[in-house]
Amino acid sequence: MDDQELDRMDLCHTKYYALLKQRRFLSPIGENPQRILDLGCGTGIWCVEVADDYPGAQVVGVDIAPTQPQWVPPNCQFELDDIEQNWTWKSDSADFIFSRDLILSIRNFPRLIDQAYRHLKPGGWVEFQCYTGLLHCDDGTLSEESTFRNWANLTKTACERFGTPVDDPTRFKQWFEERGFECVTEEVYKMPCTPWAKDQRLKLIGAWEQHNLMNHLEGMTMRLFQKSLGWTEEEILVISAMLRKELRDLGVHAYWPYYVVYARKPMRPTGQ
């Protein structure tokens, strides 16, 4: 979690805000939530902005790494903890539980969702946002033999071996429904990998994602490929250089699906 990685996370925050058309979340939480949790809050930038938007709410960000700022709104705080362990917060206490980009960090999403259900107030909302590492292209401009396609497939295999599949977000909706949430809604956005889109907003998002990929390939790939696939550092540097070359080709219209899934905890039946 060096400065380069923290800058990357803040850039991703800006990218997702633009992708959702200047919305931080989609859940209809109302105007007066009392307690909001951000699971895996990273640099804490989402928490700070939501605390400013909802001054009457207590906004709590939790992460396993102490990378959050010290100067924050008075209604914002951060806790250092592992969200995959048992939560110590009071049950039925949160109005809104949010998470973003927990891909590659969680090995048991159904258990995490179960804990979110227990800690939400009846009528409270949960929302998971996450891109998938499943590379898409709708017009055939991405060759099956391309380095980009090969790199994405290798990443998928490596993550499956680690127990953190890159397609977990495609199952969020099913897991929410199985746990008993209601009003489960799934929205999928196309996040361009480079600035190939004609739409100016999507073009800018693609430029940010191109920057993200080209400047952080080794950080995203080195440990993963070495530990899971047995690759050498030299092999990883070679495929990274080849991929950077391909990412400059705006004739390739590749994108990542970005999943937003939100749902409500049912109200208790009358008399309970």
UniProtKB/TrEMBL annotation:
<dbReference type="GO" id="GO:0008168">
    <property type="term" value="F:methyltransferase activity"/>
</dbReference>
<protein>
    <recommendedName>
        <fullName>Methyltransferase domain-containing protein</fullName>
    </recommendedName>
</protein>
<dbReference type="InterPro" id="IPR029063">
    <property type="entry name" value="SAM-dependent_MTases_sf"/>
</dbReference>
<dbReference type="Pfam" id="PF13489">
    <property type="entry name" value="Methyltransf_23"/>
</dbReference>
<comment type="similarity">
    <text>Belongs to the methyltransferase superfamily. LaeA methyltransferase family.</text>
</comment>
